[in-house]
Amino acid sequence: MITSIYRTWWRLLSDDVGNPGTNAEQADDLTRSEFLRLMTMGLVSASAGLSVDRAFAQMPSDTTPVTDLDKVYDAWQDRFNAGDLDGLLALYAADVTYINPDGAQLIGQEATRADYAGLLALKPKIEIGDRKHAVYQNIALTTNHWTLELADSTGAMQKLTGGGIEVVRNQDGAGWLFIIDDASRSAS
């Protein structure tokens, strides 16, 4: 992942001659994935060895099961906006299939944790709207549109939009859990 971030950072900060610097034309072509990679690169550089796990260690976690399907996105949004990594992952099945914004398919909570850790360290805020559910017994297909705000390396606020499509399953005592989360979809 660090190599991917470095390559993106270098490509975005190199001008046509190959010298480091800012190139306005390249900055205009910045995709959501490239922006998030660039932000992670800045965070890693700025943290000077502070581990993300230690940064989140002091935060209280909400791992309360969500038993009302209509409250799943509320809980996810609240935990995401609070930077509650453990609480957020408590909404995922242990063997979840998570497709990140780059389209990489990650299996399990630990792979999902690693992907979210860098993003949550940036203290983003998300608003999830246009939520829809199609339910079959204890499984639901859910969709949404979201708006994400976070500061770039200069402190300027950036607004990203997209959409999600997820499959959740009611796990009785564990409530509704994400079993498939595809964050690579764009909002239409």
From TrEMBL:
It holds the Pfam family SnoaL_2. Residues 75-169 form the SnoaL-like domain. It comes from the Bacteria. This is DUF4440 domain-containing protein. It comes from Phyllobacterium phragmitis.
